[in-house]
């Protein structure tokens, strides 16, 4: 006779070693007592990023030119050069009167990002850029070529206030939000680099954008939304990238997930979950102290219902911390109880750091985690980790370059 007793997830919790996030100071900490604090406060920036056409819609660009005493109708041509030909160089704009080119570019296409480093990895199929902004703050973006697409991972903030203990950016705290144009300029530079064949394999079209670089994009919501407009609207308004090819990742700012669902832009939502139980997630993702796993998954499911876009659940597998089979089962149960086929789980093997509490799961443990999810009917794809030989995790390159410069000074 079949055993009809309810399956309990409580008993298996006792099995297996449990390492907790607080066992050692956060990665990159300089003091043994260091503990980054969750902060929603955006520090006051030192000045404002120069105004750029990507901060404005087409009507705003026309208005800006008019106010500067320049012909408003040139905003259209200027925008096409920027969003279609990926240039801000007056010499390329031969359809504009030579006498006006420099003035038009000075007015709406100021220099926003200076390249500090560009490091290649994965046989030239990945390039990680470190950029310096007008006020000296630095951000990263990573360009990756895959078989079927070319993807840019962009930063939306300099640093991050979410304080996730496994993340180099989280240890820096938040310096400031990026302006819309500072986000878009990362894309323009990457689109030009792809077209010009800087990635191994020859010229490519930048097709996908993921907001998974430095920062929590939802904290910078007011600049994120115009950035999504510039990405998705076609020229002269923007790049014309399909919303389906854009992913916004969040650690779980529930009210803003709900708001994003109403914006009418069906971008993919990626939820950095990393633990299906509040007990662990409270320590692993400090924002969980505000919005619990259940609230977050409810909001993610609402997002799916509103947009029809399947939600990605990101899950970094950390040895003995969150990689237990019972957690995979609990995750599957939490997803299945809200419906079927609405979420896709991406387990991500953490970059190995031998001896650290933040190390990757053993291969057989990772496989068991994946098998448990699949047996429960959850679509699961282990994510390719790119750039692990160039400080692949967000914020690591910026932190490393800063240390090198300090050693040299
Ligand atoms: S993992 Fe993301 S949200 Fe958490 S501290 Fe790092 S950048 Fe911020």
UniProtKB/TrEMBL annotation:
Its cofactor is [4Fe-4S] cluster. Residues 1-37 are annotated as: Disordered. Keywords: 4Fe-4S, Cytoplasm, Disulfide bond, Iron, Iron-sulfur, Metal-binding, Methyltransferase, rRNA processing, S-adenosyl-L-methionine, Transferase, tRNA processing. [4Fe-4S] cluster binds at residues 160, 164, 167. One of its GO terms (molecular function) is 4 iron, 4 sulfur cluster binding. InterPro entries: Aldolase_TIM, Methyltransferase_A, RNA_MTrfase_RlmN, rRNA_lsu_MTrfase_RlmN/Cfr, rSAM, rSAM_sf. It is found in: Cytoplasm. Residues 146-389 form the Radical SAM core domain. Pfam families: Radical_SAM. S-adenosyl-L-methionine binds at residues 215-216, 249, 272-274, 351. The active site is at residues 140, 394. It catalyses: adenosine(37) in tRNA + 2 reduced [2Fe-2S]-[ferredoxin] + 2 S-adenosyl-L-methionine = 2-methyladenosine(37) in tRNA + 5'-deoxyadenosine + L-methionine + 2 oxidized [2Fe-2S]-[ferredoxin] + S-adenosyl-L-homocysteine; adenosine(2503) in 23S rRNA + 2 reduced [2Fe-2S]-[ferredoxin] + 2 S-adenosyl-L-methionine = 2-methyladenosine(2503) in 23S rRNA + 5'-deoxyadenosine + L-methionine + 2 oxidized [2Fe-2S]-[ferredoxin] + S-adenosyl-L-homocysteine. Its EC number is 2.1.1.192. One of its GO terms (biological process) is rRNA base methylation. SUPFAM superfamilies: Radical SAM enzymes (SSF102114). Binds 1 [4Fe-4S] cluster. The cluster is coordinated with 3 cysteines and an exchangeable S-adenosyl-L-methionine. GO terms for cellular component: cytoplasm. Gene3D superfamilies: 1.10.150.530, Aldolase class I. Belongs to the radical SAM superfamily. RlmN family. Reaction proceeds by a ping-pong mechanism involving intermediate methylation of a conserved cysteine residue. PANTHER family: 23S RRNA METHYLTRANSFERASE (PTHR30544), RADICAL SAM CORE DOMAIN-CONTAINING PROTEIN (PTHR30544:SF5). Specifically methylates position 2 of adenine 2503 in 23S rRNA and position 2 of adenine 37 in tRNAs. This is Probable dual-specificity RNA methyltransferase RlmN. It comes from Actinomyces graevenitzii C83. The lineage of its organism: Bacteria, Bacillati, Actinomycetota, Actinomycetes, Actinomycetales.
